[in-house]
Write a structure and sequence with these properties.
By secondary structure, the protein is α+β, with helices and mostly antiparallel strands. It is built from 2 helices and 3 strands. It has a 3-stranded antiparallel β-sheet with strand order 1-3-2. Strand 2 and strand 3 form a beta hairpin.
Length: about 70
């Protein structure tokens, strides 16, 4: 999921995340998993209950890849 700068902070990211989680629950999913990069939005996902369970440092060089999960 990615939003251009001019759409950020208006609730669209939250709406998209809610829709994805709802679709997962409707299909019987009990957990949601995602990965994001330090230059992107790990804090965004943490605000909505995602917890980090792993990371790859310096991937890509100078950044960290974060792996996150949430119980649905």
């Amino acid at each position: 999921m990615w939003l251009p700068e001019d759409l950020r902070g208006k609730g669209y990211g939250r709406q998209l995340l809610d829709l994805a989680e709802e679709e997962g629950r409707n299909r019987g999913a009990e957990h949601a998993f995602l990965d994001t990069f330090s230059v992107q939005a790990p804090e965004f996902y943490k605000k909505f209950g995602y917890q980090e369970f792993g990371e790859l440092e310096d991937f890509p060089p100078g950044h960290t890849r974060h792996f996150m999960e949430k119980d649905l």
